[in-house]
TrEMBL record, chain A:
Residues 311-380 form the NADH-rubredoxin oxidoreductase C-terminal domain. It comes from Lentzea indica. The keyword Mitochondrion does not apply. Residues 609-749 form the Nitrite/sulphite reductase 4Fe-4S domain. PROSITE patterns: NIR_SIR. Its cofactor is siroheme; [2Fe-2S] cluster; [4Fe-4S] cluster; FAD. Catalyzes the reduction of sulfite to sulfide, a step in the biosynthesis of sulfur-containing amino acids and cofactors. This is assimilatory sulfite reductase (ferredoxin). Residues 537-598 form the Nitrite/Sulfite reductase ferredoxin-like domain. GO terms for molecular function: nitrite reductase (NADH) activity. Keywords: 2Fe-2S, 4Fe-4S, FAD, Flavoprotein, Heme, Iron, Iron-sulfur, Metal-binding, Nitrate assimilation, Oxidoreductase, Thioether bond.
From TrEMBL, chain B:
Residues 2-103 form the Rieske domain. Coiled coil: none annotated. This is Nitrite reductase small subunit NirD. Signal peptide: none annotated. It holds the Pfam family Rieske_2. Keywords: 2Fe-2S, Iron, Iron-sulfur, Metal-binding, Nitrate assimilation, Oxidoreductase. The lineage of its organism: Bacteria, Bacillati, Actinomycetota, Actinomycetes, Pseudonocardiales. It comes from the Bacteria. The keyword Iron-sulfur applies. It comes from Lentzea indica.
Length: 819, 104
């Protein structure tokens, strides 16, 4: 008989339990109070980047009956029945409580005033946004976050994202009092105050009052803050308002044993609402571990919860913070080794035993790259080198049982086993078979290191002729000013080249403005599409795509395209990029077709090249009732600026005139969405095989700044990406990810932005239409012939038939009557 | 023998297509070391007459042309497909007489 499991709570931990039980014989019913699907609460502050809750949603699960918007209101443990708010009753064989926690709101007078919020759910953020938008303060809005812990700084970050300058008020004498010591917190405060935060430690709010549309907060130290919004994030309490008559733990939470079972053998509790043998946990990793324990128990296993490592590594407001083991040196006789580099903005503290032999814990602020190596060493012998000045933890050998991925509790042993058995040969495969790196992603650099340590050579070689990666070849070509493939392969490669390195080098030469791509020394390197400046189709004919910038076209030009298509019998189709594709041209016809198109003012659309394709647009303010900026004008400007730009792979773009996003800009390599104040720039989106929404790079910038940052972004991509790597895969593989990209192309951390902009300026000034270049050069034109011994004779293998009134190729090798 | 073109029309590491009297097609390649090769122009994997437009290079030192359609490599000297050993294409005789390239 099928047994029924009821899960109360559709948060991250409940979701994890259902996932862990997928494929089991249990029928699963989930009660979720929120009306939206389970989402990633850890990433809540990123919601303000896009205001799209879909971006936070966890992978949907099949096999469970999930009742969204149905709060469980009572449980009858005698009859084993859960009652929902709608009156629905579901009987259970097992019940798991995963109700999470509620924000703790300190008893400050005025805490219930409009404009005061907690920070826990997507709805809370929507509420904060509504308050901020309703505020009528001229200039920047002002907010207060009560609580300077991990959650408080997250909330402050969310406020910054809404254009609010936050005051952070923390009762303890330092920020993040649980994780970080005084030294680390001092640096943290200095770093976050550079980001428009004001930190008030060692004080609290004594009252909040309303004054017109403002809120006035009085702090215990006498300070008065004039505010638009107040956010409470001073901690959480286990949520136990659903009273089952079960015993609670000393700090709240349903009391459970190490198997996460309450005193009622049919009832379990997991996550923040559970008090496991008296301990509560406010992090997601222990919650996940509890979910795995209960899944195992329900499947007849005997797993228990071993307690959790409360080590944390996070990036708050762009600052690395990590804390592990006995971070506060509470062990008797513990010694501290502190390196505080105020100039570099890094702080590290190692806590060791009184004989300096055992590592007990530590704190890292500013640079937490040593964390993955250090954390597994807690309780183990500390390498002497580490305690010397300049000791580098990143070089340490990790023990086999060390946990590499704490989100999914994956040990080094599990990972090295997967590598050595040949199951996984790269990071993507490791993610798929061990789950490591699929949570917060902070262990991905460690996965790469383990692959290297296991002797898996992650070869960067372009092909058998070059041992260099594309990025390295790019730098070689740029530095040596080599302009031919022959010179490059003689000096830096071997053999004669192939269909991989030749087009890759041709693309590099083109990106560095080395003249027409069909010039004498380059033509033999080009793939057939580039060689004939058209797209090869399955029967050996080509298709032709003239550029239509921004998708805007006059009736006269549209008629020319129609006439050309009619006169050459070309199959005609509208593309996804707002232009027109003409199919079925033979190589002999291409110059004749283009002569007419060029005469009418058209240019190559580069549909055949690894180059900028189109910049789509919606109609924007010119026509649309909702548009807030001129999206067509910007799209045309961008398309004309970047036309002809050769890159590691094709580049697509779009501009939307308002947040309704009709141009689908977030599916593009670079997409622009208009705001009331300017433009938001999104990068590294993709449709195709692995769809990816683009990430917000900068917001509310003016057109000049926007173009400057796109210039830098594109040139940085062109210089550093692998061959045929779209921007999405490039960003995914970039060490440091989006944050690093922003540091390079927005903050100019590497000091290369002037050079990137100059490279783009030179592209823009050197641009010339490739098709015009062919038509004006008899030598290039001569190559457009089917048969060198019978120019003008049509290729007899090419035949057409009619379909829906147009010509389409006759399937080759299949005899068909030609009409 | 069928005349293809003057030798000087050919460019190293590139191909041209020629039409034979029976309506079939030959792809003629000049490699960097100055040797000439002629193969059927039809790519057996797609049926399209396009091999003369493929990229010429080497694989492990063996001179090849790579089909522009689905990228299989064919050995220039033998017509053997290196990616699908069961497939090979016809090799044609090619010579230069009085500065003119001819094939059979």
């Amino acid at each position: 008989m099928t047994r029924t499991l009821v899960v109360i709570g559709n948060g991250m931990v409940g979701h994890r339990l259902v996932d862990a039980l997928s494929g089991s014989s249990w029928r699963i019913v989930v009660f979720g109070e929120e009306s939206r699907p389970a989402y990633d609460r850890v990433a809540l502050s990123s919601y303000v980047d896009t205001w799209s809750s879909a971006d936070l949603e966890l992978a949907p699960l099949s096999g469970a009956e999930i009742r969204l918007g149905e709060k469980a209101v009572s449980v009858d443990r005698e009859r084993r029945i859960v009652v929902g708010a709608s009156g629905v009753e579901v009987s259970y064989d097992a019940l798991v409580l995963a109700t999470g926690s509620v924000p703790f709101v300190p008893p400050v007078p005025g805490r219930d005033l409009p404009g005061c919020h907690v920070y826990r759910t997507i709805d809370d953020l929507d509420g904060i946004r509504a308050t901020v938008e309703a505020a009528d303060r001229p200039g920047r809005h002002s907010g207060m976050v009560l609580g300077g812990g991990l959650l408080g700084l997250e909330a402050a970050n969310a406020l910054r994202g809404m254009g609010v300058s936050p005051h952070v008020v923390e009762l303890a004498p330092r920020l993040m009092p649980i994780q970080v010591d005084d030294g680390g917190a001092g640096l943290l405060k200095r770093l976050v105050e550079k980001l428009d935060l004001t930190v008030h430690t060692g004080t609290s709010a004594s009252s909040i009052e309303r004054d017109g549309s403002r809120l006035i907060a009085k702090l215990a130290n006498g300070l008065e803050l004039d505010l638009d919004v107040v956010v409470f994030s001073a901690g959480i309490r286990p949520r136990t308002d659903l009273d089952l008559g079960l015993e609670l733990g000393p700090r709240g939470g349903y009391l459970v044993d190490a198997a996460c079972r309450t005193s009622d053998p049919h009832v379990y509790a997991i996550g923040e609402c559970a008090s496991v043998e008296g301990m509560t946990y406010g992090l997601v990793a222990p919650g996940y571990a509890m979910a795995e324990v209960v899944a195992d128990q329900l499947n007849g296993g005997t797993k228990v919860f071993p307690g959790a490592d409360l080590s944390t590594k996070l990036k708050l407001l762009g600052v690395d913070v990590a804390s592990f083991g006995d971070a506060h040196a509470q062990t008797e006789g513990a010694l501290e080794v502190v390196v505080n580099n105020a100039v570099a903005g890094t702080y590290s503290k190692l806590v060791v035993s009184d004989d300096a032999k055992t590592l007990l814990g530590g704190v890292l602020v500013g640079d937490a790259s040593a964390y993955p190596s250090l954390r597994p060493l807690v309780g183990k012998e500390v390498p002497a080198a580490l305690l010397q000045p300049g000791g580098n933890a990143a070089d340490l050998e990790m023990p086999a049982d060390a946990q590499v991925c704490s989100c999914h509790a994956v040990t080094k042993q599990t990972i090295t086993d997967a590598i050595q058995s040949g199951v996984a040969c790269d990071v993507a495969e490791l993610k798929a078979c061990t789950k490591a790196g699929t949570g917060c992603g902070s262990c991905v650099p460690m996965l790469k290191k383990l692959l290297t340590d296991c002797g898996v050579e992650q070869s960067k070689a372009l092909c058998e002729h070059f041992t260099y990666s594309r990025a390295e070849l790019f730098e070689i070509v740029r530095a040596t000013r080599i302009t031919t493939f022959t010179a490059l392969i003689e000096k830096h490669g071997s053999g004669r080249g192939c269909d991989i390195c030749k087009p890759a080098v041709a693309s590099i030469l083109a990106s560095l403005n080395n003249g027409h791509i069909l010039g004498e020394t380059q033509v033999s390197l080009q793939d057939t599409n580039d060689k004939f400046l058209a797209n090869l189709q399955r029967n050996g004919t080509y298709s032709v795509v003239p550029r239509i910038p921004g998708g805007e076209i006059t009736p006269e030009k549209l008629i020319v395209i129609g006439e050309v298509a009619r006169d050459f019998g070309l199959y005609t189709k509208i593309t996804g990029g707002q232009r027109i594709d003409l199919f079925g041209a033979t190589v002999d016809q291409l110059p004749e077709i283009w002569r007419r198109l060029v005469d009418a003012g058209f240019e190559s659309g580069h549909a055949y090249g690894k180059a900028l394709r189109t910049v789509k647009s919606c109609v924007g303010t010119t026509w649309c009732r909702y548009g807030v900026q001129d999206s067509v004008g910007l799209a045309i400007e961008l398309e004309l600026r970047y036309r002809g730009l050769r890159s590691p792979h094709k580049l697509k773009s779009a501009v939307s005139g308002c947040a309704r996003e009709c141009a689908e800009a977030r599916g593009k390599d670079f997409g622009v969405i208009a705001t009331e104040n300017g433009w938001n720039l999104y990068v590294a989106g993709n449709g195709g095989f692995t769809p990816r929404h683009a990430d917000l790079l900068v917001s509310d910038v003016d057109t000049e700044t926007l173009i400057k940052i796109i210039d830098r972004f594109l040139m940085f991509y062109i210089r550093t990406a692998d061959r045929l790597q779209r921007t999405s895969a490039w960003l995914e593989g970039l060490d440091g990810g989006l944050e690093h990209l922003r540091e390079v192309v927005v903050d100019d951390k590497l000091g290369i932005c002037d050079e990137l902009e100059a490279a783009m300026a030179s592209h823009v000034s050197d641009y010339a239409d490739e098709w015009r270049g062919v038509l004006e050069d008899p030598e290039k034109l001569a190559r457009f012939t089917s048969f060198v011994n019978a120019p003008g004779t049509p290729d007899p293998t090419i035949t057409f038939r009619a379909e829906r009134g147009q010509r389409v190729p006759v399937q080759l090798g299949i005899p068909e009557v030609v009409r | 023998m069928t005349v293809v073109c003057d030798f000087e029309v050919l460019r190293p590491e590139q191909g041209v297509a020629a039409l034979l009297p029976d309506g079939s097609q030959v792809a003629v390649f000049l490699t960097a070391d100055g040797s000439l090769h002629a193969l059927d122009n039809i790519d057996p994997f797609s049926g399209a007459a396009v091999l003369s437009r493929g990229i010429v290079g080497d694989r492990g030192g063996v001179p090849v042309v790579v089909s522009p359609v689905y990228k299989q490599a064919f050995e220039l000297a033998t017509g053997k497909c290196l990616d699908e050993p069961s497939v090979s294409i016809a090799v044609h005789q090619v010579r230069v007489r009085d500065g003119v390239v001819e094939v059979t």
